[in-house]
Write a structure and sequence with these properties.
single chain; 300 residues; MetI-like fold; two-stranded antiparallel ribbon
Length: 300
C-alpha cells in the first residue's frame, strides 16, 4: 500500500533528522577546544567573572541532556541565542535563510535545465563531435573545486546561484547522459526507430519515460549537492546566507547555532529525498503499452 510506504518513510525521516542533530551536537561538544572561552584570556576579567563563565558553561549538562533541552525549547518557538553573533537565532535565520533558498532554487533550476538539455541534445542529434565537446566541457567543470569556482565568481561579480548551477549542471549531465546512452540500445527504442519515428518523438515517448525514476531520484541528491556547494560559495562571495552563517558559527564554536543549522539543512535534504521517493512510488514505474508501444504507467 502506498500510504504504508509514506508512513514508513516519514518515520525514518523524523528519526534520521533527530539523530543528525544529536550527532552534530556531539561533534561540536567533543571537538578540541570547545570548553575554552576567549573571555578567559581577557586581562580585564577578574577571578570571579572567569569562575562564573565556567559555571555557566558547566551548567549546560551532557550532550543528550543539552540536546533534549534544545529540542524542547525549539518546540515552543525558542531557538536560543547565538553566542558568537549575540543575536537571537530566529532573527538570524529570518534574515539569511530566504537568500540561500533563492540561490539554491535558482541554481538547481539553472543547473538541471542546462545539464538535462545538453544530455538530451546528445541523445537526439548523436553527433560524435558534439558528444565529445559536451563531455569535455562538463568534465572540466567537474574538475574545478567549488572554492576555486567561488573565487572566479567573486572576481567577475557573479551571484552565488551561478556557482551552484555550475556544480549541479555537470553532474546532472553525466547522470542523464549515461542513462540516455544505455537506453538507446533497448528493444523498444530500436523498434520505434525501425518504424521510422523521428528522434525527438523517440526521445520524448520511448527514451525519457523509462529513466524518469532515476532522474527523479537524482533530483533529491542534487538538493544535498546544492546545499553543500552553497557554503563555500557564499563564504567566498560574501553572500549573507546560511552558508556564511554556518562558517561563522563553526569558527565561533556556536553550539546552539550549529545544531539549528544542522537540523535545518538535514530537514531540507531529507524532505527533498522523501518527496522524490513519493513521486517515484506514485508514478509506480512504467512499461510499454501493448496498444501503442509508447511508455505509459501501469494503468495503460
Amino acid at each position: 500500500m502506498l500510504w504504508r510506504k509514506l508512513l514508513s518513510g516519514a518515520s525514518r525521516l523524523l528519526l534520521t533528522w533527530l539523530c543528525a542533530g544529536l550527532f552534530g551536537a556531539a561533534l561540536v561538544r567533543l571537538a578540541p577546544g570547545f570548553g575554552a572561552d576567549e573571555l578567559e584570556l581577557d586581562a580585564r576579567m577578574n577571578r570571579e567573572s572567569i569562575q562564573a563563565i565556567r559555571e555557566a558553561r558547566g551548567a549546560e549538562g551532557g550532550i543528550v541532556a543539552s540536546y533534549w533541552r534544545y529540542l524542547r525549547n525549539a518546540a515552543s518557538g525558542d531557538l536560543g541565542m547565538s553566542s558568537s553573533m549575540g543575536r537571537p537565532i530566529a532573527e538570524l535565520l529570518g534574515d539569511r535563510l530566504p537568500l540561500t533558498l533563492r540561490s539554491v532554487a535558482f541554481g538547481l533550476t539553472l543547473g538541471w535545465v542546462a545539464g538535462l538539455s545538453m544530455a538530451a541534445s546528445t541523445a537526439i542529434f548523436r553527433r560524435s563531435a558534439y558528444d565529445a565537446a559536451a563531455g569535455s566541457l562538463n568534465g572540466l567543470l567537474l574538475c574545478i573545486p567549488s572554492a576555486l569556482l567561488a573565487f572566479f565568481l567573486f572576481a567577475v561579480g557573479a551571484p552565488a546561484a551561478v556557482g551552484i548551477a555550475a556544480m549541479v549542471g555537470p553532474r546532472v549531465f553525466r547522470t542523464a547522459h549515461l542513462l540516455f546512452r544505455d537506453s538507446l540500445d533497448l528493444p523498444h527504442v530500436l523498434t520505434a526507430e525501425a518504424k521510422g519515428l523521428g528522434r525527438v518523438r523517440v526521445f520524448s515517448f520511448h527514451l525519457l519515460p523509462p529513466v524518469a525514476p532515476q532522474l527523479i531520484a537524482w533530483l533529491g541528491t542534487s538538493v544535498t549537492l546544492a546545499l553543500g556547494t552553497a557554503i563555500p560559495v557564499e563564504v567566498i562571495c560574501d553572500s549573507p546566507g546560511i552558508g556564511q552563517l554556518a562558517w561563522k558559527a563553526a569558527l565561533g564554536r556556536d553550539l546552539n547555532l550549529l545544531v539549528c543549522l544542522t537540523l535545518i539543512l538535514t530537514a531540507f535534504t531529507l524532505t527533498a529525498n522523501f518527496l522524490c521517493d513519493v513521486a517515484i512510488a506514485w508514478r509506480g514505474g512504467s512499461r510499454p503499452c501493448r496498444r501503442s508501444g509508447i511508455w505509459r504507467p501501469h494503468s495503460c
